[in-house]
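WARN no homologs supplied; continuing
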Amino acid sequence: MTHHALTRADVVAVPNWRTVASVFKLRIGVLIMLTALAGLAISPAPAPTAWQVVLMALAVLVASGSAGAFNQFVEADSDRVMKRTRGRAFASGALRAGPAWLALIVALLVAAVGATWVWINGTAAAFLFLGAFTYGVVYTVGLKRRTWMNIVFGGLAGSFAVLTGAAAADPAIGTLPMLLALVLFLWTPPHFWSLAIANRDDYASAGIPMLPVVFGVERAARIVHLNTVVLVAASLLPVAFGAGAVYLVAAVAGGLYFLRRTQALARDPQRRTAMAAFFASMVQLSVLVAGVAVDAMLR
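OK structure emitted
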């Protein structure tokens, strides 16, 4: 018991880099950054300079990390209640959620938005801010504990990332980037609701009204599948507005894979099928983004 106490005290005193990095949800941040690059790639406008592309990508990563850290900062108490999140840095006490962290979080967002405003353009900076604000404030503070529709509106954060990338090429957003932003908006609910079904009891014990807590697992699973049908249909729309054959193949292949998993979830709603659907959503989005990138290179 003494050894455990000393170990914990040491971690609090000198947190390692993994502990600090985990606060910023970097894996999610990288995915958000890739969707921003996809928004840039799908835009028919000429690409900005290479250094502006790098700056935009890093700004999206930093802003996403800031929003992720704010999410953990605000939800430290509820995270302690949930098995899935009780090991997070603020929830476990490995890091102290004090004013210095809040100042750092705000400073990172200001730096990312400011750099985008100065060296890219104001429209991209505005979309970047709106993405972080939507996830950090609208979703985390405003809606998460109030309505099962929380993640529907929270899904706008991913859409704003796409629009940030597109605006870096042309502030006058075209049809293709708008459609990709729609795809991201529709992708977020089945992605998170699949995870919520797998962790339904956790959310219930924390008092968070996620879809399966409010409507039950079976009905939630059917909603996830129907939402995925709409998502896959929407992902095909860019083909009618100029997206190429590679994009079409990626949208069909990734979409069918995701649909197969959500259909299995609807037929047999349990943790195993829910997690399979959750991971399938990641595969679908990754394949779609890769399709956008290859399509742009062949243009």
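The CA atoms of residues 74 and 141 lie 8 Å apart.
OK
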